[in-house]
Amino acid sequence: MLIFAVRNYLTVLNRDLKEIAMELILWRHAEAEEGFPDMARQLTGKGLDQARRVADWLKPKLPEKARIIVSPARRTQQTAMALQLDFLTDAAIGPGASARAVLAAANWPDAEGTVVIVGHQPTLGEIANYLIPSVPPGLRVKKGSVWWIRCEEKENINEPVLHTVIYPEML
């Protein structure tokens, strides 16, 4: 009788567990210098420190096969370099890219595993609002911050869930 009860309990548990289909990590570049041309703007000293602190927090949490996709802008390249991991530069997610273009580059929600996007505002805020409707329109993703979104699958339906938001000042 006990074995039957345990088996039924485990069956119910397994039915209710959500499977993580994909993780999308949106990382806005850290603080950058003002100036022109926009693509050449570099991180300030504060920005380099922000990128290092966030990278130190993020790197041990990333799975070994995480894909990292970075805008070609100098400030995003410098932000991503703080991770000390290989990354792909994709012009499709550069300044002014649409939320749709960035999600396509990440292959959301169909990619397996974890994808890190190092990009720009307002696009990252638009993505957060699109995926998580409770996020207010016009949300500003702070410089250097990470928004970690999980695509959880339950009963064959994909549901974006906000997992973590981290700002450099929190670290």
Describe this structure in words.
This protein has 171 residues and is α/β, with parallel strands linked by helices. It has a single domain, classed as Phosphoglycerate mutase-like (Rossmann fold). Helices cover 32% and strands 25% of the residues. It has 5 helices and 6 strands. Strands 3-2-4-1-5-6 form a 6-stranded mixed β-sheet. α3 links the parallel β2 and β3 (88-89). The chain is globular, with a radius of gyration of 18 Å. It starts with a helix and ends in a 5-residue tail after the last strand. 35% of the residues are buried. It holds the Pfam family His_Phos_1. This is Phosphohistidine phosphatase, SixA. It comes from Nitrosomonas oligotropha. One of its GO terms (molecular function) is protein histidine phosphatase activity.
Helices and strands, with pairings:
Blueprint: H1 2-16, E1 19-28, H2 45-58, E2 67-70, H3 74-81, E3 88-89, H4 99-106, E4 113-119, H5 123-131, E5 146-154, E6 157-166
Parallel strand pairs: 1-4, 2-3, 2-4
Antiparallel strand pairs: 1-5, 5-6
InterPro entries: His_Pase_superF_clade-1, His_PPase_superfam, SixA
GO molecular function, one term: protein histidine phosphatase activity
Organism: Nitrosomonas oligotropha
